[in-house]
Amino acid sequence: VRVPYVPESVKNEMREQIKQEVLAQAHEERWGDPGALPAWMRSISVEGDLRVRYQHDLFDRSNNSEVDAQGGFLGQATNSLAWAPDLSNSTHDRDRMNLRARFGIKSKLNDDFSAGIRLSTGNGDSPTAVSQTQGNYFNKYSTYFDQAYIKYNHEGETSAVAGRFANPFVGTDLTWPDDINFDGLAVSYKPALGAGHAAFLTMGAFPLQEFETSRADKWLYGAQVGASLNIAPNVQFRAGLSYYDFHGVEGVSDTNIGSSSSSFDIRPNLSTQYPSKVRQKGNTLFRINNNGVEDNGQNSIWGLASKFRPVDLSAEVTFLHFFPVTVKASLDFIKNIGFQEDDIHARAGSVLNSYTVAKKTNAVQAKVAVGVDRIDRAGQWQSFLAYRRFERDAWLDAFTDTTWHLGGTNYQGWSIGGQYGIAPRTSLGLRWTSTRNLSDATLYGSAPGYSDAILKIDVLQLELNTRF
Question: Is the full-model pTM beyond 0.70?
């Protein structure tokens, strides 16, 4: 047996190398530290935020007071057509305090996989409401799972997420409000193009309503393509083109629902109705329980007249000449290509034979924002000015911002506001939004009712925000 000779200097070098490797591992894994956490717990991060807001809703004195007398049927024509059957107030100003509280946990499982859970206050019947209105004799708030997801992200280029998660699409709040979250599955591909340029492609499938005894489930399918470019020194440009298909949400007339005013069958799983718990106001509706009973709409089951297949084109330019203060200008345009009057009459049957349903399917928003992207310390600030015109059937009114016109579609107006940092990650904010409805008086042929009634709404919001 031949044993080679190892010089003492080499032995010492090997000992030192092994020693350093062991010390590094011990430091990383905190050997011998009685307060050390297990490795899986060190991969967990906690985050949360709080918002306390005072809101004053002002209804113009020129608003049609008959709306309230009609029990909230603003825009209802007859048993056949309606535009805002759930609106109960058009003249009475309102003051309220509300609170938004969110608490989340994220865990990095390995280099590619992560998971997250977030709890939030809010309304379980509204997809866009996450604030709790105060004033219920100090009773406790409801808490909901706002997010719960598993995410795959490979080197920041290819990603997929499943469960309930944040909005995966790029754009403005004209389409998706800031507080909305998605159920379902989304995949994204974001290749780098060099020189600070990048492209993105996102696709997803999201269940909207599932029925145990029907195959007419409602889904949202979405696809978006776009790019981020450095078009000049200190100037960035981003644009995205999106197509959405709100599959199966449109109403279909059913003459078999009820045969008299006392025998209406209002089934909770009626697959083509537009549920009152999610709709806001603005979209054109027609009565789907078309059984010929005249009851002024009090027992009506409403369905969406139009199909919703909106195309969204958004663009944003960011100027970094005064960094960290940035100037952002954005423009967003929506066109609902799913609106077809022949299709509406085919689905509505005889209920709309005498009506011409106007094609009001566009929406646009222009916005300028100045300030820092996120307030992290005292003295930092943000400000914005925005104009918006939102036609009746451009977008599903269930998924609209609840500040603009107090939710829904069919309005135009502007919003101005800002925030100022008063402490680390804490800011005061002020916002004023002023809107009025778009008149349809000459656009619905022989359809009577309040579709042309004035509805002017101003909203003042003063809030205190903090995050941790």
Answer: yes
